[in-house]
Specification:
It holds the Pfam family Glyco_trans_1_4. This protein is an alpha/beta fold and 870 residues long. 35% of the residues lie in helices and 20% in strands. The longest helix has 19 residues. The radius of gyration is 35 Å and the shape is elongated. The two termini are 43 Å apart.
């Protein structure tokens, strides 16, 4: 690069310059003098210098003009010449020169060669920078056009969230020297535009912030064809480049934190608090305002939506209701669903129906099926209430008090264990009182006079949603991270009282004790079974009823595996918003969720698949999640398997061995050693009749037709049978078994009593993983007879601590194998006692924390606790 610098003979030629204006010059020699003169004519403040960077301009007049000014104004005008490198390269050349040559310079300004400055601009900017906090790295002006006819305001407090979605900071801003001394530069690879937006985002990523400069005096030349118009034609491409480069600023957790700091989403109206609390996370403290001040803030947001913000959603309730929802782990779910429903409704109301069943259910009844007037939680959009306050008699408001609210009302119904009735007229009364108070405010309201400058930025109320949409997700679940805790979610298609769910409960409980917040997400169902151990396993529950259920296909997939079509829709983006705030997600058999794993991984979420068994169809054909997992393997950080058999199958299917984590099963619940000892002691006593138990899901997988045949042919043996369980799958057909089917045993004491009662547990399944019922029975000294499917052989050593019946033989042979083993044990009680003792000894040391240790260590390395080294 060749520099030409005109300077006086005095060796202190740079002394006294406090602000340097860098003017890149390329193909605009006729306009350059205006730009230079507008700097030289600055008044009322610091001495300014002009650094013209000739960026390989083909017109010789550019250098001639700059040299002429340098001769006339020695020590104030400098010319640098370089090969053409684009606008960013020219500005960077100017920055480097200023830092190296103008040591007293406190600030820099970037002025394009076709723009101008008002005579007092730099003085105002330097004064503002000097008075600003140290984190303010630049001051930015309004944009007053000449050539065109528009004038744009960028007033109000600086908002990083707004900057993420709209570049309202003109390149012609004044930058503190320290900001570029730290190495910040314009990206020279961005030659098609948006390089100034990128510069401000890069500054923000380093902790710098901007500040608006009122009455700045920046003049922007507007022409119908310019570099800006060319950039706008490439907008989607350039935005994608920005989002990829600044992925950390757009990281979901960072977006949520910025939203909480700048644009809270909910206004909580709770009379027992005596204030309106503005929050993103309903479990957080947020900012409290007196009700009158909150209404004034709403008014300001309605008048100046791009300058002021007020939460889009108002919530009316009582503290006790939010506390109940928080204890039940559903607080954030309710707020997320309410916000989603309010896209198409004016009001959303939540009914809470107490139940004595161990379950949790979320339903969405029609408007005629619920009572808004008694709902303990009511949501409304602030703009809707503001509009209603200006209507003397809004019919839809009146309808809320009757039995049939208008269709613009959306209802949620939550069934959960809770004491007594939770109906309350207070929330709706609060809403009506708020409308009346807003109406009084509107009557006193004198609208601000229309400004002569147009607003450049989008409304602040939508900037968080816009930023989230920019990275392909819907509204983020309103749950803020907690310092020192990491968040891990388990994604399932359903959650019932079955072995797989017990595995998840135990794994979640161990993770929780390890310092993780644990979250259950059920994609496609609105109900889960929830036993006593649930509260110790999961912090929160998210029921995504009706989402993703039909977006799957079992035809045409990879080697016949299922395919997820749940991607690209608004519903899929909504679910991504739920999941994107996690550190880790484990997808356990959710086919619909497979399409979301790659997007989540790009967003920084660590994604694992959880495999529990290899399924087979009615004709023995392979199907199920392992085959799906092989198809989607590239989208995952790792795969969890519960058996060596599954690990070997995955390696054979092409999944890299380093991705596979073996986490073997242990019994599904803890029990007292005294119960085990009592059960083993009782088994030493002879019984006249052998007592046989089937315990499990009443589904085809469990071999119910075989069970019926075994029971039917066992009469000569004189056995006592008990069958315990229920169907989980909707299409399950339970054959006549010849004995009553008892309801499922859920609590540990009830399960221990069953295992202690039984001498033998039979499991004639067609496919399995490592059933927890086998491990639980063995621990109590109950002898297991099972088909040798799946990884059952890893839990049973045939003839030593249980018995295996070959599966790959005729059905009659399988049934005969069970009957023969039952007859043998009935006749030889010594054999029964020996096998029982061996089984109990084998399971004595089975422990979930021990079996999960390697995976826990891996997670610690992958996602270290905040503040700890990775």
């Amino acid at each position: 690069m060749m520099r030409t610098v005109q300077r006086p003979a005095d060796s202190n030629w740079a002394a006294g310059v406090e602000v340097a204006v860098v003017i890149p010059a390329y193909r605009q020699p006729g306009l350059l003098p205006e730009a230079i003169l507008s700097v030289l004519d600055q008044q009322g403040g610091p001495l300014s210098a002009v650094v013209v960077v000739d960026d390989g301009c083909p017109y010789p007049e550019t250098a001639e003009t700059a040299l002429a000014f340098a001769s006339l104004h020695p020590g104030r005008v400098f010319l640098l010449r370089r090969p053409n490198g684009g606008l960013s390269a020219a500005r960077n050349t100017g920055i480097d020169f200023v830092l190296g040559a103008l040591h007293g310079c406190r600030a820099l300004h970037f002025l394009d060669a076709d723009n101008r400055l008002h005579p007092h601009y730099l003085a105002r900017a330097l004064t503002a920078l000097a008075a600003a906090p140290a984190e303010i790295g630049w001051v930015y002006p309004d944009i007053d056009e000449f050539g065109g006819h528009d004038h744009w305001t960028t007033g109000g407090a600086f908002s990083l969230m707004q900057l993420l979605t709209c570049n309202y900071c003109e390149a012609g801003s004044v930058v503190r020297r320290e900001m570029v001394e730290g190495g910040l530069r314009f990206d020279e690879a961005m030659r098609d535009g948006f390089e100034d937006w990128d510069f401000w985002l890069s500054a923000a990523a380093r902790g710098w912030r901007g500040q608006h400069l009122p009455h700045a005096g920046f003049r922007y030349r507007r022409r119908p064809e310019s570099m800006l118009s060319s950039s706008e034609r490439l907008r989607p491409l350039l935005l994608g480049q920005l989002h990829r480069k600044h992925a950390r600023l757009f990281a979901p957790r960072r977006l949520l934190a910025a939203e909480a700091a700048e644009v809270p989403r909910f206004a909580l109206h709770m009379p027992d608090e005596g204030q309106v609390r503005l929050v993103v996370d309903p479990a957080g403290e947020g900012t409290g305002l007196p009700p009158s001040q909150a209404r004034e803030a709403m008014l300001a947001a309605m008048e100046q939506p791009s300058v002021c913000q007020y939460p889009e959603i108002l919530c009316f309730t009582e503290t006790s209701v939010l506390d109940l929802l928080a204890r039940s782990g559903v607080l954030h779910m309710v707020f997320w669903w309410a916000e989603r429903l309010l896209r198409d409704a004016h009001v959303a109301a939540l009914e809470i129906v107490p139940t004595d069943q161990p379950m949790l259910a979320l339903e969405r009844p029609g408007p005629a099926e619920g009572q808004v007037a008694s709902a303990p939680l009511v949501f409304a959009r602030s703009q809707v209430l503001w509009a209603a306050a200006g209507d003397p008699s809004p019919a839809w408001i009146e309808s809320l008090q009757g039995p049939k609210p208008q269709p613009i009302t959306a209802l949620l119904r939550l069934r959960l264990p809770a004491p007594g009735s939770l109906a309350s007229p207070l929330p709706l009364r609060l809403l009506l009182l708020e409308v009346a108070a807003l109406a009084r405010l509107r009557r006193r309201w004198s609208p601000l006079p229309a400004g002569w400058k147009r607003e450049y930025r989008p409304p602040r109320g939508r900037i968080a949603a816009d930023a989230e949409a920019a990275i392909g997700i819907g509204r983020l679940l309103p749950r803020l991270p907690r310092p020192g805790l990491r968040d891990i979610g388990f994604l399932l298609p359903l959650f019932a009282f079955a072995g797989l769910e017990k595995v998840i409960l135990n794994q979640a409980a161990v993770l929780r004790r390890r310092g993780w917040r644990t979250h259950l997400i059920v994609l496609g169902q609105g109900r889960i079974d929830r036993g006593a151990e649930f509260a110790g396993a999961f912090d929160t529950v998210m029921l995504l009823d009706g989402l993703g259920e039909t977006a799957v296909s079992w035809e045409g997939g990879y080697f016949g595996a299922g395919v997820s079509h749940f991607g690209g829709s608004q519903a899929a983006r909504d679910v991504l918003g739920v999941l994107a705030g996690l550190d880790v997600l484990i997808n356990v058999h959710s086919l619909a969720g497979q399409a979301l794993m790659a997007p989540l991984r790009r967003l920084g979420v660590r994604v694992f698949g959880g495999l529990h068994l290899i399924e087979h169809g009615p004709h023995g054909e392979p199907r199920g999640t392992p085959h799906v997992q092989a198809a989607y393997e590239h989208a995952y950080d790792g795969i969890l398997v519960i058996s060596r058999q599954l690990r070997d199958w995955c390696i054979g299917a092409g999944i890299p061995a380093r991705k596979i984590h073996l986490v073997e099963n242990a019994p599904g619940y803890a029990t007292r050693p005294s119960r085990i000892a009592a059960a083993l002691a009782a088994r030493q006593r002879q019984r006249r009749l052998l007592q046989v138990l089937f315990l499990g899901r009443m589904d085809w997988q469990k071999g119910l037709d075989r069970l019926a045949a075994i029971i039917g042919h066992s009469a000569p043996l004189g056995l006592r049978w008990r069958v315990v369980g229920r169907a989980v799958l909707a299409d399950a057909a339970v054959p006549e078994l010849g004995v009553p089917i008892e309801p499922p045993a859920i609590e540990p004491a009830a399960l221990d009593a069953l295992y202690a009662w039984a001498d033998v547990l039979v499991l004639p399944s067609r496919f399995e993983g490592v059933p927890l019922v086998v491990l639980e029975a063995q621990r109590m000294g109950c002898v297991v007879i099972a088909t040798d499917v799946g990884a059952v052989a890893e839990a049973i050593r045939h003839g030593e601590d249980g018995f295996l019946v070959p599966h790959r033989q005729a059905e009659e042979a399988v049934i005969d194998g069970f009957l023969e083993t039952l007859a043998r044990l009935s006749a030889d009680r010594a054999l029964l006692a020996g096998v029982a003792t061996a089984a109990a000894a084998r399971l004595a040391k089975a422990d979930w924390p021990v079996r999960m240790q390697d995976f826990l260590d891996h997670l610690d390395r992958l996602v270290p606790v905040q503040g700890q080294p990775g």
